[in-house]
Amino acid sequence: xxxxxGTTKSRAFRVMWLLHxxxxxxxxxxxxxxxxxxVRFNPTGKVPSLIDGEAVLTDSVAIMTYLADKHGKLTAPxxxxxxxxxxxxxxxxxxxxxxxxxxxxxxxxxxxEEQRMPAIKASLKFEFERSTTQLSNRLDGPFLMGDQITxxxxxxxxCLNWAIGAKFPRTDDKLFHYAKSLRERPAFQxxxxx
Length: 194
Description:
This protein is of the alpha+beta class. The protein has helices at residues 12-22, 36-41, 60-71, 81-110, 120-138, 151-165, 173-183, 186-192; strands at 2-6, 26-30, 49-52, 55-58. The chain has two domains: 2-74, Glutaredoxin (3-Layer(aba) Sandwich), CATH 3.40.30.10; 81-185, Glutathione S-transferase Yfyf (Class Pi), Chain A, domain 2 (Up-down Bundle), CATH 1.20.1050.10. It is built from eight helices and four strands, in the order βαβαββαααααα. A four-stranded mixed β-sheet has the order 2-1-3-4. Helix 1 packs parallel to helix 3, helix 1 (12-22) crosses helix 6 and helix 1 (12-22) packs across helix 8 (186-192). The radius of gyration is 17 Å and the shape is globular. It starts with a strand and ends with a helix. Residues 79-194 form the GST C-terminal domain.
């Protein structure tokens, strides 16, 4: 059985949600970032980590991609044009949303106080809003890649939820309703209760 190390208030939530979507059981080991338990599985102290037998995997997107490929769910097959487009969307979300939200978090509470630059958050919110408009224009169906939920949907919804928690402005009704429909999925609800 898989083991997921992290908390539901971290990127580990993405992995737990994906596991619920694909119907794979897992044990959850609660560990805060940089805690002794987190460092035990990842020397950087970052979460999540996934234990699969003897293997320890890190990075939420790498873990999600591994699991989706291994079980043949929530992903286009490797080596296809559809997969290349899916990977492009995943990487765009990491670059344009996740990285911006992480930078805002670093300048809010992660970095030592003397290293924080609160003024940067205004430009980060501007960048996020611009990217939100771009993503909204690309959303042409119930999910980002068409008629089926895939890794980019989990990533996008998690980032939208993170943005709400970080007090980024809600700028797009289309994406708000898209994320709301994802949050209503049974697998999302199950992961939230983990």
